[in-house]
Amino acid sequence: MAAVSIRQIKKTYPGTGLTILKGIDLTIPDGSLTVLVGPSGCGKSTLLRTLAGLEKPDSGEVRIGDRDVTTLEPRDRDIAMVFQSYALYPHLTVRENLAFGLKLRGTPQADIDARIAEVAPQLKLDELLERLPRALSGGQRQRVAMGRAIVRRPSLFLFDEPLSNLDAALRGEVRVEIRRLHEKLGATMVYVTHDQVEAMTLADQLVVLNGGVIEQAGPPLEVYGKPKTRFVASFLGMPPMNFIDATIEGRVARAPGLSVQLPKSFDVRDVTIGIRPQDVRPNEEAALDLRFELVEGLGFESHVHGRLGDDGAPFIARLEGDEGRKIPKWGKLGLSVSPTDVHVFDRATGRALS
Amino acid sequence: MRHALALLVLLVTWFSAARASAGQVVVWHAYREAEERALDKLLDEFRAAHPGAVVESLAVPYGAYASKLEAAIPHGHGPDVFIDAHERLADFRDRGLVAPLPLSVIDRTAFDEKLLPPLELDGKLYALPIALKCLGLYLRGDATPASLDALPSLAYEAANAYAHAPLLHAFGGKMIEGDRYAFADGPAEQSLSWVAAAVAKGKIPEEASEALILQMFSAGTVNAAISGPWFAADLPRDLAYRVVPIPPVTPGGNKPRPFLTIEGAMLAPKPRDPELAGELLKFLVAPSSAIVRAREGRQVVATRAAWTDAAVASDPFLRGFADAAAEAIPMPTSVAMRAAWEPTTRAIQKVLRGDVTPRAAMAEAARRYADVTRPLPPRADPRFALFLVGLIALFGAFAAVRAARDPQFVREVKGSVSAYAYVTHAVIVVTLLVGVPLIIGAATSFFAGRSGDLHYVGLANYWDILRARGGPLLASGSFYAVLAVTILWTVCNVVLHLVIGVALALLLSRPALRLRGIYRVLLIVPWAVPSYVSALAWKGMFHRQLGAVNAVLRAIGVEPVAWFSKFATAFAANVATNVWLGFPFMMVVTLGALAAVPREVLEAAEVDGATKWQRFWLVTFPLLRPTLAPAVVLGAVWTFNMFNVVFLVSGGEPDGRTEILVSEAYRWAFNRQAQYGYASAYAVLIFLLLVLATRLLRAQKAAA
Ligand SMILES: Nc1ncnc2c1ncn2[C@@H]1O[C@H](COP(=O)(O)OP(=O)(O)OP(=O)(O)O)[C@@H](O)[C@H]1O
Ligand SMILES: [Mg+2]
């Protein structure tokens, strides 16, 4: 087990001239599960592959434990990686797939057998050991890929979207399984995903990447509750946060169809305020005046889509149960929001103001 | 109906028109350049003299001449008159390709009396002599040497039996004596020793080919060369040279008499218009025509009267060859003579390379000669075979009848008639192009004798092959020895193809490699060049004195190697050539297969701790295997039957030991008495071996 520290990593793929990682600084505590999220193409895989040693950074330093591994080959880094495509060896049986890395390291056969015997039941692979990968289902392959990493007992696990090829139900199941494994092994893990449910549920530390820079890193609830940038705020939460351009007058932010109290006063006038759909409540006081357009009812909750005022910003409100259905079309809905739930961002820089 | 009738009438008239080709004569020849121009000019004159007659001429490439004649004449679309060397007359007569000349065209007094007997068979004249071809001595400068010993240097194809013959005759030897192989006595030994000594002294270049001699003589590296009239056509126009008969070995010694080939005008049986054909024959040898042929075609003409023409008589080139021809010995046309070339040439080669003493080489040659001319297997009783064929046919018929009675089968056939219609043309084409030749080839293997005079011998050909014609089983040239070489050849090649092809493909598939596209194209080039062109180029590169390979060796201080004098080096030269030809295929196949190896799997192995080599050996290679396996089987079959390289590069040297099964079969069919039955048996055995090998491979794969 080991902590990982990344200092000022920069990476440009040769021939493209595009800088993919623009100076990443990150500390991954020993035994933690760190999740990297971000939109497609933001450099998550690149960062992970840099940790693995499959890509060499242009500058910067990667340390695993107390070793500087920046220039080491992957095989000298004592890491294991689970790929999105699983990357099982097609010509080897499940058992041989599991044993592959151990054999290469010269582990005695008895030891290999013991480790496989230990890992296989955990991942429900006992019955499949003699099969070839092509005779396995997607979920089974995924478990073999996990098993291949686990038997190695590396000091660092790397996962690159390991669940994205599974169906929704299986994904939920395996997600829980991974969390359980992490708890049991106590290993340091870095996990890449673009699924925010996975990110929120799995992470000890959540890292939001955008365009090759870290927007925010911290415990998931903190990142969710106190997003440092408009990007982070928009990226986490479902339905996404509402953003309304507003002007501040004293401790009140105003915009067409909106007039909300702020927790404190700000010295900037032009801001964007953010309100999560679930933080509003129907209320006659009507700090927000929502012109109803349509409703998505999910049974246990409903999402009401509309605009603020006559032609103000679009807005989504989440209501408990079936309430939204009762609103007449083109009707009005008054909403209130607690001042502490209002996020204020600098309109120009997108940074949170506090 | 009316249309059909009209068509019939049309066909009938067309056929009868084609049949009744009165006033038509077709001439075939193998002439090129000046000789062809002279002949064309004469034919124009003939046309002018016979208005209304159709005179057609066709130049057939020399290599294909005999087989074309054989294919065309019996079916009535061959020539009426054709020109060819007298050596082939007996053969042509046996195959019914020539007819005796009518007395009306013969004027024996027009030619030297020595020229007519070689053109006679059983007392009948079969050809009118057109031109004479034999070896002479080409000289630069004015001095005429009194003897070969007096020459400082001399270029000729020393290792060739035809070119050696004058020397042999000078020492009083003979190639054959009646039916006996006579290259086995003291004079033969003396002739061999003389040449070997001259080569050792550097007076005569070793491994000299016609092209090399031409080059040396043109460049003045040598001032004397022995060759025939054909040599002059390729000499530089402004080169001053003379031709004289080959002088004796020592002053005043025996005349070295070369073999004489008499080109004759021959008459096909059943000419379209016998009278016109006769006219043409007479015209071709008439003095005026002969003068044209001599002056413009540079032919040493046989018509005596032509030499009264001042221009002809004073031409030093024609004069020289005429003098040489006067002393030459007409080439015997017997079976024995034809069988003698290969063993004799081999013996001379061996001696010149210094491998063996002349005596041992001659003994070996005699053995080879006996081997090739061994009596044909006796006639066998074909009844059993016929019975077997009949039985199979009967069973077939029986099965067909049963199927036809089966209503289910009939229904199925009726249901898929349209499907059968779609594949009919393919079935017909495959049957004609593959099936029929295969069956004919296989059937031939049960016969022996010359074509036209085949007799059924049962399995005697196979029996002969399999017990090495009675000799020791592993003697050089026996089936088993050749098979062993073939297997070694196949294994060496396929392994090298695979290793080099895969290695290059791996290099080429590295994304970091610059100019990948260019390398890829360059590496595929050997595949795109016709294989015989590459093979000839490689043969040139392995030449002992002038080859690039030895030049490189010399540059790095290694003694030049006589590549074709030892089995190991000759075999290596063949393998090098074939590897050059064959690796691009494996490379292209591997490149395709590599593209299908997922990058992430290799990365997984990298993370799992595999070194570069382990990644290749434990991951990439196993993933390539399913694609490479069929390519290897294909490559093995191609290599097993790679005729071009063996035939062109080593040509079986040394001493037939680098021959593989196909090239050996070729030799039996085309170099040794046209033993087609024997060669077919070889071919059938090759086929069976390959079928067996692929079967075994497949069974092994299924088991794995
Ligand atoms: N081998 C490569 N060569 C050149 N550019 C690359 C290479 N690999 C990735 N990129 C580029 O780098 C950027 C980041 O890629 P990366 O794979 O890290 O994205 P990601 O965050 O993992 O996205 P996703 O969620 O879609 O997997 C992309 O713009 C991509 O086009
Ligand atoms: Mg990715």
Q: Look at the structure and name the CATH superfamily of the largest domain in chain B.
A: MetI-like
Assembly category: heterodimer
Radius of gyration of chain A: 24 Å
Please work out how many helical segments of chain A DSSP would assign. 8
Rg of Cα set of chain B: 31 Å
Shape of chain A: elongated
Class from secondary-structure proportions of chain A: alpha+beta
List low-pLDDT spans of chain B. Answer: 15-21
CATH class of the largest domain in chain B: Mainly Alpha
Overall pLDDT metric of chain B: 86
For the termini of chain B, the CA-CA separation is: 66 Å
Text of the CATH class of the largest domain in chain A: Alpha Beta
Please count the beta strands of chain B (DSSP E, at least 2 residues each).
15
Percentage of residues in DSSP E strands of chain A: 25-35%
Strand count, sense and barrel status of the largest sheet of chain A are: 6 strands, mixed
List keywords for this structure.
heterodimer; A: 354 residues; alpha+beta; Rossmann fold; 6-stranded mixed sheet; 5-stranded antiparallel sheet; 8 helices; 24% helix; 33% strand; elongated; B: 704 residues; D-Maltodextrin-Binding Protein, domain 2; MetI-like fold; 3-stranded antiparallel sheet; 8% strand; globular; binds adenosine-5'-triphosphate; binds magnesium ion
Give an overview in words.
The complex is a heterodimer of chains A (354) and B (704). Chain A has helices at residues 44-52, 94-104, 109-122, 138-151, 168-185, 196-202, 220-225, 230-235; strands at 4-12, 19-28, 33-37, 59-64, 67-68, 79-82, 156-160, 188-192, 205-210, 213-218, 242-249, 252-255, 258-261, 270-275, 280-282, 288-297, 301-308, 314-320, 332-337, 343-346. Chain A is of the alpha+beta class. Chain A folds into two domains: 4-234, Rossmann fold, CATH 3.40.50.300; 239-346, no CATH class. Chain B has three domains: 21-132 and 262-329, D-Maltodextrin-Binding Protein, domain 2 (3-Layer(aba) Sandwich), CATH 3.40.190; 136-257 and 334-372, D-Maltodextrin-Binding Protein, domain 2, CATH 3.40.190.10; 476-672, MetI-like (MetI-like fold, Orthogonal Bundle), CATH 1.10.3720.10. Chain B has 27 helices and 15 strands. In chain B, strands 1, 2, 3, 6, 12 and 13 form a six-stranded mixed sheet that branches. A three-stranded antiparallel sheet of chain B has the order 10-7-11, covered by helices on one side. In chain B, helix 20 (531-541) crosses helix 22 and helix 23 crosses helix 24 (612-640). The longest helix of chain B is centred in the C-terminal third of the chain and has 30 residues, at 479-508. The N and C termini of chain B lie far apart (66 Å). The relative contact order of chain B is 0.08. The model of chain B is unreliable at 15-21 (pLDDT under 50). The chains are: A alpha+beta (354), B alpha+beta (704). Chains A and B meet through strand 6 and helix 2 of A and helix 23 and helix 24 of B. Bound molecules: adenosine-5'-triphosphate (ATP) and magnesium ion. The site of adenosine-5'-triphosphate has 12 residues of chain A, from helix 1.
